[in-house]
């Protein structure tokens, strides 16, 4: 009986993983960074992963999902896109408290506002991401921690999930990314 249950579980797990691998071919997954993937709220000078975040990201990466970030950073982080990204990474890395570094290489792109007037929940970044996904014929998911951002993402045509909003885990369950 134990062998049967173990075999059934293995078959179910393999099929579920195959399904997410197929889904990942036609899907782009975007995340907010602060208080979605990393905790910047409790101790602003001690940044670390949110609970379950690294394991979740590892699962998506193993399945071949394309992940990117949509991050609110102020104009003061730099005048150019490159400077803003460098300042963002330095900000997180200089406060990072985990043993292993943050997994920046998991993310294909990092979207940041051009100006403070474009900060989320303003729709411009969500519209840009949705347009890019549409041009690639991809479905797009966004996960973030504020209801206003989730609503703006949905209005832009994205599938959006408020992290921490369910009792069965902090992030959108992988089997619901379809």
- Number of strand segments: 7
Order of helices and strands: HEEEHEHEHEHE
Low-confidence blocks of residues? 1-17
Q: What is the chains' assembly state?
A: single chain
| Fraction of residues in H or I helices | 25-40%
Number of helices: 5
CATH fold field value: Rossmann fold
Largest sheet: 5 strands, parallel
Going by helix content, strand content and strand pairing, the class is alpha/beta
Please indicate the percent range of residues in DSSP E strands (runs of 2 or more): 15-25%
Descriptive labels:
178 residues; alpha/beta; Rossmann fold; five-stranded parallel beta sheet; two-stranded antiparallel ribbon
Q: Mind explaining what this structure looks like?
A:
The chain is an alpha/beta fold and 178 residues long. The protein has a single domain, classed as 3-Layer(aba) Sandwich (Rossmann fold), CATH 3.40.50.1000. Helices cover 39% and strands 16% of the residues. The protein is built from five helices and seven strands; from the N terminus they run H-E-E-E-H-E-H-E-H-E-H-E. It has helices at 2-25, 53-62, 81-95, 124-135, 147-155, and strands spanning 27-31, 38-39, 48-49, 66-70, 107-111, 139-144, 159-162. The strands form two sheets. Strands 5-4-1-6-7 form a five-stranded parallel β-sheet.
List the helices and strands and how they pair.
Layout: H1 2-25, E1 27-31, E2 38-39, E3 48-49, H2 53-62, E4 66-70, H3 81-95, E5 107-111, H4 124-135, E6 139-144, H5 147-155, E7 159-162
Parallel strand pairs: 1-4, 1-6, 4-5, 6-7
Antiparallel strand pairs: 2-3
């Amino acid at each position: 009986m134990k062998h049967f249950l173990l075999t059934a579980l293995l078959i179910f797990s393999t099929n579920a993983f195959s399904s997410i691998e197929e889904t990942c071919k036609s899907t782009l997954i975007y995340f907010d960074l602060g208080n979605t993937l990393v905790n910047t709220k409790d101790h602003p000078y001690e940044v670390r992963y949110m609970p379950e975040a690294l394991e979740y990201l590892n699962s998506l990466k193993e399945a071949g999902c394309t992940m990117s970030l949509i991050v609110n950073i102020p104009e003061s982080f730099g005048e150019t896109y490159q400077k803003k990204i460098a300042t963002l990474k330095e900000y997180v890395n200089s406060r990072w408290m985990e043993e292993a570094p943050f997994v920046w290489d998991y993310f294909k792109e990092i979207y940041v506002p051009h100006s403070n007037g474009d900060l989320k929940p303003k729709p411009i970044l969500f519209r840009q991401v949705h347009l890019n996904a549409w041009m690639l014929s991809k479905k797009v998911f966004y996960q973030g921690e504020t209801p206003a951002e989730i609503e703006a993402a949905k209005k832009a045509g994205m599938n959006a999930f408020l992290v921490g909003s369910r009792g069965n885990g902090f992030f959108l369950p992988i089997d619901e990314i379809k």
